[in-house]
C-alpha cells in the first residue's frame, strides 16, 4: 500500500477507507439521499453508512443559506397575504 500511495502522491497516513468517507460525503452533497449512499456503498445498515458521512463547514454554510432563502421567501409570501390573526380580527 505504501508503494501505491507514493506512486500517486498521497500522504503517508492515507487509508483506502478514506475514499469511502469522501465518496459518501460527496454523494450526499450532490443531492443523494441517505438510502442512495447506502446502496452505492453496498451497505445494509444505517450505522455503517453513518460512519462514512461527514458534514464540513462549507456544507453547513450551504444549509444555512438554503434555510435563509426559505425564510425570506416565506416572509415575502406572508407580507402579501393576511395572517390568521388579521383574518380573525377583520371578521
How do the strands and helices of this protein lay out in sequence?
Layout lengths: L1 H6 L10 H12 L4 H8 L4 H7 L4 H24 L3 H7 L1
Word description of this protein:
The protein is mainly alpha-helical. It is 70% helix and 0% strand. Helix 2 (18-29) packs antiparallel against helix 3 (34-41). It is elongated, with a radius of gyration of 22 Å. The termini are far apart.
Q: Quick one: overall form?
A: elongated
Strand content: under 5%
Euclidean distance between termini CA atoms: 76 Å
**Roughly how much helix do the residues carry, as a percent range?**
over 70%
Alpha-beta content class = mainly alpha
User: What is the string of helix and strand elements?
Assistant: HHHHHH
The biggest sheet amounts to: none
Number of helical regions? 6
Count every beta strand, where a strand is a DSSP E run of 2 or more residues: 0
Kindly report the average pLDDT value: 84
Uncertain segments: none
Q: What is Rg?
A: 22 Å
Question: What's this model, at a glance?
Answer:
By secondary structure, this protein is mostly helical.
Task: State the main characteristics.
about 0% strand, 6 helices, about 90 residues, mainly alpha
